[in-house]
Amino acid sequence: MSQALVMRDRSIALTDAEINTAQRVMTNGLRGVDEKNQKRWIRFLKTAFSLESGEIIEVGTRAPRSGRFHRYHMALEQAIFEAQDKFQHFDQFRNWIKVGAGHVDWVAGPKGGVVPLPKSISYMEMDEPAMREFHDAMLAFLRGQHAAVYLWKHLGADKAAEMMETVLHGFDR
Fold it and tell me: How many other CB atoms sit within 10 Å of the CB of residue 63?
């Protein structure tokens, strides 16, 4: 889900004609998919246009996830898991990938330090752009200096990197 904080900037004087034009474009150029959603959309626009200077509203959008891309990503994770020697449990492997990709919340640890807590990649938590961003970060991590060596320590750095590329190559899109 993509979220933005939006505020009304009244430092730019808009004429009534400009406001009316903007509202007409926003209510006719973009519409709710049905009557209920159109009413929600109009209510949101009225709220946004009536904000006082400096007042803030939060706007959230969700782009539906692509089932095809989801299956591709999950198959890639599974292929790497099956090829590696380090992890016995897929959930722990996935958490390691999330941490490596930076898909975490930083929280207080049990001894007072800060530790990474992996975030969800579920359909409810991530829309399509966020999933693709995570996927790209995961690939950057897997192709980085540490992942392959960690997964195939017995191979040495060069052979481990080759092994990673062999697995990833099968998933080039």
Answer: 14
CA distances from 161 to 94, 123, 166 (A): 19, 31, 9
Residue identified by tokens 């579920």 is 122
Give the residue among 76, 87, 90, 81 at the shortest CA–CA distance from 168. 76
Amino acid in the structure at residue 17: A
**What would you report as the CA-atom Rg of the chain, rounded to the nearest whole angstrom?**
23
Could you tell me the pTM of the whole model?
0.69
Answer whether 159's CB lies under 8 Å from 153's CB. Answer: no
Taking the C-alpha atoms of residue 75 and residue 68, their distance in angstroms, rounded to an integer, is 11
pLDDT (tens digit, 9 = 90+) per residue, 126-154?
A: 889 999 999 999 999 999 999 999 999 99
Q: What are the tens digits of pLDDT across the range 39-54? A: 999 999 889 888 888 8
The Cα 74–Cα 33 span in angstroms is: 32
How far apart CA 139 and CA 102 sit, in angstroms, is: 12
Element spanning 114, H or E: strand 114-118
